[in-house]
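Two proteins were folded this term; both appear here.
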Amino acid sequence: MNGGQAAPEQTSTATDGTGLSRRAALAATAGLTVSTSGCMSRLQDLITQQNVDQLSLTITTPPAESDRESTRIARRLEEALKAVGIDISFEMRSGVDFHRAVLYDHEFDICVGRHPGATDPDFLYEALHSQYTDESGWQNPFGYSNLDVDDLLEKQRHATETDRRDAVTNMLEAIAREQPFVPICMPDEYRVANTDRFADWTDGHLATRSGYLGLEPAADVETLRAVHTDGRPTENLNPLMADYRGRGTFTELLYDSLATDNGTGELTPWLAESWEWDGAVLDVRLRNGCVFHDDEPVTAADVTFTYEFLADMSSGDDEGETPAPRFRGQVDAVEAISIRNRDRLEIEIDAGHAAGERALLVPILPAHIWRDRSDTGGGLGNGALAQGTPTAVATNNVPPVGSGPYQFGSRTEDSRLVLERFDEHFTRRAGVDLPEPTVDEVSIDIPPSQETAIQAVVNDAADVTSAPLDTELVDGVETSSGRQVFTSTPWMFYFLGFNTRKAPLGNPRFRQVIARLIDKEWLVENVFHGYARPIATPVTEDWVPDTLAWDGRDPETPFLGADGEVNVREARAAFEDAGFRYDDRDRLRVRQ
């Protein structure tokens, strides 16, 4: 054949033994060669030009005005990735939009931000377990899936107290190898407080309810004036929304939990007067006579409802479960609940003691209000919150009704939130030895910047900066006899997150190389001005194993360079060792 046409009939009698003349055979062979060569050439072009292209990624981060450190980390990463041949675009989103894109819609490639962390490493169970890959919130927003890591997450959760440290170490080492996200540093937390108007600032962590209770006000001081540089608490007071809630500080003032953590990881009975643990069941006794802010009683039925509702906001009406975007990993430890009487219940725990106690930290919701929020008539914008969103998530929950030490007073959106003391709270009872609300109200004002917030305390227009200060501002704060800078134990951390649902971000070798483009020591000194500690694992210092202890460099993914500058030759070699290739223009290629 030749160009798809049959060769003409030959008259010569000389043949090649098949009845086909030698001339015809040669012609056919030539035609086949030309035809196949053209097809192969086109096929090669198709593979090399259409299916392989320069790798392009987008870095998503909050804007500088709300999180300067995240933006600077992301810009530094952008420079490094461009230097090693990756096409990078940069996307800044508002605080709510950033969390919605990452936590709900999973519309990101790489993100840089702050993770709320926790005092116990069990928080990594919900952060990384593969059963949560399709859920919303801080439940595995990275879409990470590894059965071996799942096993380790479960082992540490079920380990006895004597064996748990070894189980946690194995889990942390596996996560450090896999790098589903890159923990960068834990910043020290500094806040400015007025010591003339209030004493005892150091008794509680200001990221928890304990920081605002038990303070000793000066004579005639009736209001605690906080300045908070995040307007979200004035827009939305829904305790279940991951995009509006950070550490949940004000949620803890509005809602009680069965136990409380003052920031050290040690739990104290709170709404629960006591509990007993037999290794499988928590026998919980509630403080009697407690009421919600609308005077409805708090009972064991409300506690039971809360755990069932957080596990499935549809209350069993949908074909599948609809878990809450927050507290999922904590309530997942609860296997069943049995009500013994109005103030007593037994919580069956399918986990070890640590995870069982963490389950006691969720806010207790009034069933008579939240039960009607299980319908799916709500909706918020586009993406995961647009269709079939339960009202429980769509509502802004204003006014909130809890049973906490403070109740909702008023709000002016993006300007002020006022909480009023709830005098019926159990902490105000005689004989209860717990920190209590000591002032009539807490006002939370929203200044335009942290500089303005600091100046408000300096000028005696505010009593405390409730959010941690940007580290670049710490040295500039003027202290006096009536004003001090206080530090709190950190457990929040900065991280680089990968959307492992997308190639090549699902490849652990690729993630390992990216992790090695981040000079954590340099970032701590130049972005955080020394007010942070670089980390190889995202847990508080008392849980860091020796194998992952920081000793001037990352023990698992050491930086490919020096003094913040990437060694491009070494980085390219690392990508090639990981199975990736460069073109003749030094662009990292990826098969589309």
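Next, the second protein.
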Amino acid sequence: MDENLKKIIPFALKFKSHIIWNVIYNVLYALFATLSFVALFPLMEVLFKMNEAVTKLPVYSGIDKIGEYGKQYLQYYITKLSNENGPQYALLLTVALVISTFLFKNLFNYLASQHLMKIKNGVLKDLRDKMFAKIIELPVSYYSEKRKGDVMARMLGDVNEVKNSFFLILELIVKEPLTIIFAIIAMLKISLELTLFVFIFIPISGFVISKIGKSLKAKSTKAQQENGYLISVVEETLSGLKVVKSYNAENYFKSLFNNSITRLLKLDNSIGKKNNLASPMSEFMGIVVIAILLWYGGNLVLVDKTLNGALFIVYLGLAYNILTPAKAISKASYQVKNGLAAAERVFEVLEVENVITDNPNALKKESFTDKIVLENINFRYEDENVLKNFSLEVPKGKTVALVGQSGSGKSTIANLLTRFYDVNEGKISIDGIDIKEIEMKSLRDLMGLVTQDSILFNDTIKANISLGKPDATDEEIINALKIANAYEFVKDLPEGINTNVGDSGNKLSGGQKQRLSIARAVLKNPPIMILDEATSALDTESERLVQIALENMMQNRTSVVIAHRLSTIQKADVIVVMQKGEIVEQGSHEELLAKNGMYSKLVSMQSFD
């Protein structure tokens, strides 16, 4: 059994009752699909007056003779009705019988499809649920290596492909094979010789179809990967639209997109060609067999006179009835290959090991009482250490600023404190407890993070600010906005705190977005605040307003400030000067200026980049 098939079974088993009912209705569908053709026989006999008069009710003599018993029973009633009411009533009865069998066949097909639909949609929801939970759980480091567009394609496109293609397996193993089996049983009853031709056709057809479908799964995987790349191009182009336009790079991105859709076109055409070949190929092979049956069976009826003409017509109907499920099997087997390729890509994400997780006996920590300590930390993103034997203490209630040139490892410390990444060697502890021993939720509850890029979501100001405290009242939100120096512009907006900020907050200026980010951290009210270059992207006026907001927020809090500009850090209790992952100086603003070292040099340049 295919590995991905095994992995999807637990998702399907949640809908066990729907699977059982689907199988029951498919069995009944297959039975009535055969009976609908068998019921044509008494109709033919009435029409062509070939039925023998049966004047006595037949006697049931066991399951092996049930076909003969049913035929005799029907002929008894046809004879009785013809004698009592004339041949029209007998004809009406047989027509009603044919209609009834076709009605039941289609009713059971509908009911089976209803249950299959519930399985497919239920599994789709559960897979998406699990996929989104996994995408959010995975550490930040995962997305520095992967294209977001590819992850989105797996979440949306591939999961959908699993839904559309994968559950055809239920049709492949129940509905279509049973339709064929029941039809063959009826055909064997009518003529053993003719049925041998059908047995020759099925394996030949199966062999030809499997040959065509051999390379389909590999091509499907390539197409799905290309689809992921395509979504990435669109996502990156839209995210960076201002840069694309300002550098007149539209043609470059158009060519990236066009090259991708051209590759996708070739793959889709190649897959489609094979898919499209399945149905006509199996139908043509079926018609060849029907033609042989017509010639051979016609001889049995007209020349040898060993086969009843009406039975021969019913037999042809049954033989043709095998073609539809045979076509469906060949087409479904192709689509299942697409589904398996998609399932592979879905489970690739679901099975990624999350390296940053809670220990089984992780502690809940609800307060911060003493200090944060970083001891002999080494950290590397790939091969080279970004932090080397780095040690630092942040006492409660103090503001510690980290300064230095780009690439000196400042932002890495923010990533390690929040456990977006884990240290390679050394240890970070809060109140003497290693942060790896603290439950991640409670660790992050202790911290507020304001980043250089003020990340807002396409929702109202209220929804954006109350992310860390969903039950906050409007009064609390307005209070947080006042502390963050943001209420002065929010109160003038058409709908106040219920104003939508647009995609990524693009309806607002950079300074306004940053003050809303600060308000979000203020409302959460954590004891530890981490400011990662919170003012570096702002103009002087916005920076002044944001700076006041930051000072309001940092009162009575422990703060780690990753600084870009001098103004942000002059009032810090301790300023740590970093270079290439190591501390070169530390002290207050005045102490460091007096040393006339690296800090003094940075101040004189008025630029901390």
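The chain is about 65% helix and 10% strand. The beta strands are 371-380, 385-395, 399-404, 425-430, 433-434, 447-450, 528-532, 558-562, 574-579, 582-587. These notes refer to the second protein only.
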